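In this notation, each integer encodes one residue's backbone shape. One such record reads:

___
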Amino acid sequence: MKDQAPKAQKQDKQPGDQFKMSPKPESKADNAQKRKLEGKVAIISGGDSGIGRAVALAFVKEGAKVCITYLNEKRDAEDTEKLIKEAGGNCLLIAGDIRDDKHCELIVSKTIDVFGKLDIVVNNAAVQYSQESLLDISNEQLQKTFQTNIFAYFYLTRAALPYLKEGSAIINTTSVTAYRGSAHLIDYASTKGAIVGFTRSLANNLAKKNIRVNGVASGPIWTPLIPASFSEEKVAEFGKDVPMGRPGQPNEVAPSYVFLASEDASYMTGQIIHPNGGEIVNG
């Protein structure tokens, strides 16, 4: 039992004998034949496309029901809903601006109304605007980037928290830029660093309630945000500078979220996973 403390004991030789231990270490996989997220309900912000869509599909495959939030990308959201239904899953779509705390409260209340519970929150939606200099970052851009990329994480998590219980999971999408910086995405990288701090602090705050909080710091992943952010020339070279020499695909990142949302990660909180094509960030 995970909550069973070791009893006072001593063995006289190393590496020791497991059969003598009390309690015995747990070696068998938990629920080995069961889907990892069976019966769980998740909210995924920015779930209409990119990493969010891949996470939604991966969650559904493992038995979860999902609420997908998006700004106004109706076609992408409907395509995601279609893919989820084709996979035999249940999906709730909610459009709106997560920079509005009241909208985040609405997302949670609608999810509870439709699915009756909430187990997983994935804070994922983000914006980024490439600029050559700090002098080019307007107050408007700075505020929008922070409001979308970190304020919304606070708003959605705060709205969800009263409904989360022991065993629930919160997963925050950060970025490799939080660890190595980005000369042309100064405000974006700053928000991603804030997300790391948010993840670690909230994990400490909720550990005694056994609500786990972790993050995923992806590297260059091929999502709609890339052609919406950079020139054609930069897009053509996107991801080639990492050791693996290519951008990652959203479905290569999604398994990290499944792991963190499931009982497989029952002893992980306050941690960041780095699917980034081989870049060493020591974070």
User: Anything to note?
Assistant: The radius of gyration is 20 Å. The chain has a mean pLDDT of 94. Strands lie at 41-45, 65-70, 91-95, 120-123, 169-175, 212-218, 272-273. Helices lie at 50-61, 74-86, 101-115, 139-160, 177-180, 186-206, 232-236, 250-261.
